[in-house]
Structures are given as C-alpha cells and as structure tokens.
Amino acid sequence: METKEEILRIIDVLNDTYESEEAWYGPSVVEALRDVTPKMAEVRLSSNTHSIAEIVYHMTTWRIFAVRKIQGDAEFDIKTLDKDWKKFALVDEFEWEAIQMELSLSQEELISELEKIESDSFLEEPVPGRDYSYYTLIHGVIQHDVYHAGQIGLIKKAVKGMRLEEDDYSTFDDRSDLDNGTDYY
User: Fold this and answer.
1) How far apart are CA 69 and CA 138, in angstroms?
2) Residues 56-97: pLDDT tens digits?
C-alpha cells in the first residue's frame, strides 16, 4: 500500500505559506497582502520593478501552471511576458479584488489537485514538458510564495514610507520619479 504522507505535508506547508498567521519566516502571502489598497497595489517603486498587483498576478500564473501540469497538460506553458508579468495601468477597487480572488481560487485549485494524488511516488515523476519532478515544481511554488511575500512587504513599507495621501500615488504614474537613488528599504 502506497502512502501520501509527503503530499499531505506539502499541502500543509503550501497552506501555511499562503495564509498562516504563524509562518516561522514571517508574513504569509495573505498577511502580506492585508491592508494593501488598490492605489498601493499599482505603485512601482522604479521603472524596473513590479507593482504588488503585477506580483500577485505572477504568483497566480505560476499556480495555474502547476495545476495544469499536475493535471497532465504537457502543452500548457507560460511563453509570453504578458502571461507571466501582466502590466496594470490602473488598479481600481474592482480590479484589485479580482486579482486577489484569482490568487485565492488558484490556491484552492492547487490544493484540490494535490489532494487527489494517491501516492507520494507521483512527486518523483517528471513534469510534462520540463526536466524536473513534481516535487521540485510544488516546492518551487512554496519558495516562490515566500520570495514574493517578502517583496510585497518591502514594497508596502516603501510606499507607506512615502507618506503620501491615497490620491497622491498618481504623482508617480510614469514610475520613474521613484528611481532617484533614494534607498527606500
């Protein structure tokens, strides 16, 4: 009889990284996103950085990639920059809610797919169209979350440090004004 103990542990870590209030490394993704307003979500600290909205979209994209690969879709890929790092010219309340909801739904779908797996041996199988295993892919999603939760925290801290009123974020529409050599973190 095969077991799925490792898959259950991975599910726990995925859930902790995504929404736990007690992740040992710091804020989970959900905690990092708490109190991010639509205006904060669209701000870029410089012309060569991503906004929080873009980061969340990117995280969602890679969850969807993992889900499709777990489902056995060898053809699915993220081949264009727009599919990976979509640009958001304006993030209003509706758009920000939608971006966050898509992330939440992709998390639920990823957990659901992992729960369907019947044996830990699945983790050793190669991901269709890639040269790594499902174990590497799924742990990559966890590591990806930790990395981007940290980025979101730094961006939030920098934006709050600007001490701008909510309406003043539009001052940085071209985003280049923020790239003045000032160390915000």
Assistant:
1) 10
2) 999 999 999 999 999 999 888 887 777 889 988 889 999 999
Domains of the chain, each with CATH number or no CATH? 5-169 (1.20.120.450)
Burial state string for 40-75 with b = 16 or more CB within 10 A and e = fewer than 16: bbbbbbeeebbbbbbbbbbbbbbbbbbbbbbeeeee
Phi-psi region of 90 (alpha: psi -120 to 50; beta: other; left: phi over 0): beta
Structure-block tokens of residue 163: 């001490």
The string of pLDDT tens digits covering residues 128-164 is 989 999 999 999 999 999 999 999 999 999 988 876 5
Looking at the DSSP bridge assignments, the partners of residue 133 are 126
- Virtual CA dihedral for 111, 112, 117, 120, nearest 10 degrees? 10
- What gap in Å lies between CA 9 and CA 24, rounded to an integer? 16
